[in-house]
Amino acid sequence: MDPRLSSLQLTHTLPLQVADRIGLSIVEESFEPGERLKETELAETFGVSRATIREALRILESRRLVTIQPQRGAQVTRLSAKELDDFFEIRAVLLGHGSRRAAMNRSDDEVAVLQARLQELEAQRDDLDNYVRLSGELVSYLMQVSRSIALTAYIDDFSQRIGRYVRLGLTTPRRRQQSIATWRKLIKAIVAQDGDLAEAIHRNLALENRQAALTEFARRTTSDKPS
Description:
The protein is mainly alpha-helical. It folds into two domains: 3-76, Winged helix-like DNA-binding domain superfamily/Winged helix DNA-binding domain (Arc Repressor Mutant, subunit A, Orthogonal Bundle), CATH 1.10.10; 81-224, GntR ligand-binding domain-like (Four Helix Bundle (Hemerythrin (Met), subunit A), Up-down Bundle). 77% of the residues lie in helices and 4% in strands. The chain contains nine helices and three strands; from the N terminus they run H-E-H-H-E-E-H-H-H-H-H-H. The chain has helices spanning 3-27, 39-46, 50-62, 81-105, 108-123, 128-145, 149-169, 173-191, 195-224, and strands at 36-37, 66-69, 73-76. It has a three-stranded antiparallel β-sheet. Helix 6 (128-145) packs antiparallel against helix 7 and helix 8 (173-191) packs antiparallel against helix 9 (195-224). The chain is globular, with a radius of gyration of 19 Å.
């Protein structure tokens, strides 16, 4: 490969890589909603130029994780009950359709992978960060099994936009236990190649997460109000 082309590709992907890492920090609540993101500090942290940081922040703005205002710079977008509700409604439809297709198209090898990933998820039920990460990876793989390139791309692109809300819905150990129980039913339906049941279960899983996230959002909003 022409080294100039390799250099160009690296330059092109660096802001995206930095955006993914900052985005993950936002999802994992290392940055608070409304917190200002300082270009100089981020450039030092990641060892890149401020121009790269600015481009990364624009990527995050397109994902609705960051809001950029003239003269005020970038800050972490505040959570919104309306956005939460809208995102999960869309996600429920997409994931339900993807699981239907996965049930009809899965191979025996893919079933084995799904079952192994489910076991990994179960093992991390007491660790919120790992549970959220592994559940996201399981969703992404399940969409690949659906054989729909477009659907897989939509879900992957959507993952960080909705990531903070997914995390809210999985905050408590009890909720993660409920999530695992539903995942078991979903994988069982996919093994049985029952597309109707797989679609219904995954839609229900997404809507359960939405309700749990709304409950946690309301709790945090109330606790943040001055007494």
